[in-house]
Structure formats: structure tokens, C-alpha cells
Write a structure and sequence with these properties.
With about 120 residues, the protein is mainly alpha-helical. It has 3 helices and 2 strands, in the order ββααα. A two-stranded antiparallel sheet has the order 1-2. β1 and β2 form a beta hairpin. The radius of gyration is 18 Å and the shape is elongated. The two termini are about 25 Å apart. The relative contact order is 0.14.
Amino acid sequence: MTNRQVPDDFPREPDQGSVTGVQPKLLVREVDGRYQSGLTDEQLWERYDACEDLASQLSAYVSRKIATAGLSRDVALTRAEKGVRLKVDAGEWDFSQGEVAWVMKRTRQLLLAASDS
């Protein structure tokens, strides 16, 4: 069974959105008979799981680039982050800016852990 605990440093940003009209609006949705403005626990877990998976894939990718192209860790990470941000900015990947920052931080942690082994 998996531990479904989201780390405290993972971003918990509310859903972004807008509604037209003159008067201010509060964006909420009904979940199990209650109005909620943030992510449900399940949605938060799914976003975390996707980010953790991406960080793991990026760690392996950056490790390969360091080994095969002779790049330094910082250069390889910078290039990987640029690629991720391009995908997000183009709308191909659905990650918030906070999630991208977390993914890159987590990728660094995974690389350091692998190099310490």
C-alpha cells in the first residue's frame, strides 16, 4: 500500500480561474455537499504524484545528459528546467509555476541522493 501523504513543501495553490461580470465572484465548487475553493485531498495527491513522477524522470534524464554529453549538473538542470517551462508555457503540460519550482527542487534532491549512493 502506498503512503498517500503529500509533503509539506508541496505547493497547495488554489485553482486559478476567472468569471466574467461586473461584481466580484468567489470561485468555489460543491464537493460532497460542501463548497470548497481549494483542491480536494484526492486532487492534491494526484498533482503531487504527477510532479513526483516528473521529478523522477527528469533526474534520470539529467543523469544521462551528464554522463553522455559531459554537462555539469547545473547546466543539465538549467536546460531541463527550460524545457519544462517551455512545455508548461505552451500549454502542453498542466503544472503551475509553483509546481515547476517544486519539481526542479525535487529533481536536485534526487540527483544528490543518487550521487551520494
